Amino acid sequence: MLKDREEVLKAVDKPASLGPDLEIKDYIREAKALYSCPVSSLPKEIADQSLKVGIRTDEKDRIGTYFQIDHSVVFQGFQKAFEGKIELMSTTEAIKKYDWLKDYWWKLIPANMDKYTALSELNWDHGYFIRVLENQKIMFPLQACLFISTNGLNQNVHNVVIIEPNSEAQIITGCTVHPNVQRGLHVGITEFYLKKGAKLTFTMIHNWAQNFDARPRTAVLLEDDATFVNNYICLKPVKSLQTYPVAYCKGSNSKARFNSIIFGVGNSNIDLGAKIVLQGPRSKGEVITHAIASDSSQIYSRGLLIGEHSDSKAHLECRGLLVSDRAFIHAIPELIGKVSGTELSHEAAVGKIAEEQIRYLMARGFSEAEARSLIVRGFMDVTIFGLPDALRDEMRRIVDETAKGVL
Amino acid sequence: MSSLSIENLSVEVNGKRILEGVNLAIPKGEVHVLFGPNASGKTSLLMTILGFPNYKVVSGEIWFNGVNITNMSTDERVRLGIGVAFQNPPAIRGVKLADILHNFLKSEPEAKKKEIELCETLNFTEDFLSRDLNLCFSGGEVKRSELLQILAQKPSFIMLDEPDSGVDVENLGVIGKVINDFLKERSGLLITHLGYILRYVKADKAHVLIEGKVACSGKPIKILDQILKEGYGWCEKCLKIEKKC
Known about the structure:
The complex is a heterodimer. By secondary structure, chain A is of the alpha/beta class. Chain A folds into 2 domains: about 5-355, no CATH class; about 355-405, no CATH class. Chain A contains 7 helices and 21 strands. Chain A has helices at about 5-10, 45-50, 90-95, 115-120, 355-360, 370-380, 390-405, and strands at about 65-70, 70-80, 85-90, 130, 140-150, 155-165, 170-175, 185-195, 200-205, 210-220, 225-235, 240-245, 245-250, 255-265, 270, 275-280, 285-295, 300-305, 310-320, 330-335, 345-350. Chain B is α/β, with parallel strands linked by helices. Chain B has one domain: P-loop containing nucleotide triphosphate hydrolases (Rossmann fold, 3-Layer(aba) Sandwich), CATH 3.40.50.300. Chain B is built from 8 helices and 12 strands. Chain B is globular and about 55 Å long. At the A-B interface, helix 5 and helix 6 of A face helix 2, strand 7 and helix 3 of B.
């Protein structure tokens, strides 16, 4: 155990400050141990579900894969050409291998923050360790899948990503469940460290189930000239999802950006935030959230920009679209300027589809239903992610496929 | 047979009468111009022809190519062959110009090639198609984008709401030429304030709309000259004594 156990134990019943409080004992901890296998030999239903969250079991256009099912690491590996350039393994293995990893473990997120961080520390079920070594430009994505195949299961992963100086990488993480899984709890701790001049585009897709709960806890530390882009997509039903990732732009000229596209379906309760702390000179931040609430879903879209350096700038944009009178969107943009000279701004808009837009598209020959669908899908346009063309098209296909099912 | 025929049309928006007993017939192959001061009902007439639901027809009928379209939905009318270039189209985030062109061209062979040709006709580079619809378009881009959509749709009757407003000389030249070429063997209804577009487009007849009524009809150039010389006060007089110019 790497943390003071007593401190962690004190937090086991501590509710999170946001989101519905969950009874941990309602979830099971027993999962069948699974043996490792080539990722290409995973059963079709697992491969199909994974593909919907951007994880390719054929590994086409991917240079490495981490695949965890329930509490078992079933695959970890990358192309030989990248040996000495990247490292990819489970955090359980990495922590045994590298004594120095303790300097990156629970350093950005307190293990006693709430019952979910405590749960993750006390019942840790692997997670991925990805490290891109110095001066490496990795142009194709690495992928990590956190999969749940046992109904009612609690899975707690702790991930660490380190991008060493002047390196560049893309990571896709897909979190999803087997079609038979209806409920469960996923807790994901992810700590990102971007060294001087490092660049990371991290794209995460969640596809949960009607009665599934998720509590990701994410934090990012950016050194000088580092750039972090976080893209998040959640379009499928989830019982409750609460997350509030934070980026600390500590270095000079560091930049963090959080882009999110969320679609509330059924009775989903989604509480999604993003916080950027501008600490370094010329640090910059941007938060863009597009939230669509349908059926009886409830979406809280939070954003917090904190300017702690006199030469810093950030902008927050939240757009909410209500497509049902039973749905609910609460946009909560917050700006805290602690020094003069910091420039923080926000814009938030919540409303229904403008009639004028529907009429315009009908004047182009679309039926009213087609026009509404086109507008909603446009609202989920992945262009906001700023991804390379191939990955953008792949994400667009995923969103379109998912949208077909929910619209 | 008329392409478009409007008979004794009266229209209300939110209970307020905005068009009163309008009669208008545009024969096939003819282009008519609609003049009128601000808020006289010109755009409202176009919206009514399109069947926008907040324009409530309280009396009269609209016929298109011999079909009574008065109670049809907008998309049905458009599929019959009515096209429109709006004056101020709304911006729609995430919806691309390409989405609209794909819809019009989906059944055509070599649709992609056709799209590129249309872009070239209107001085657009292909990447313009992936821009969000009307978002941060310049005045000239809005007008050319509206025409681009009409060219892809290929309607038999087109309505153009001030295609020449807020457009610089170069754009006006492009727009004028495209409209003139497109209108050959087609019918149209054109709204213009200052008549710049009439330097490029040959119109057959003009109508002046005052307070929701057709005050007079006649030769486009003659009416335009008169309006530019004397303003719409001249037409209001006409309306009062209820005579044709």
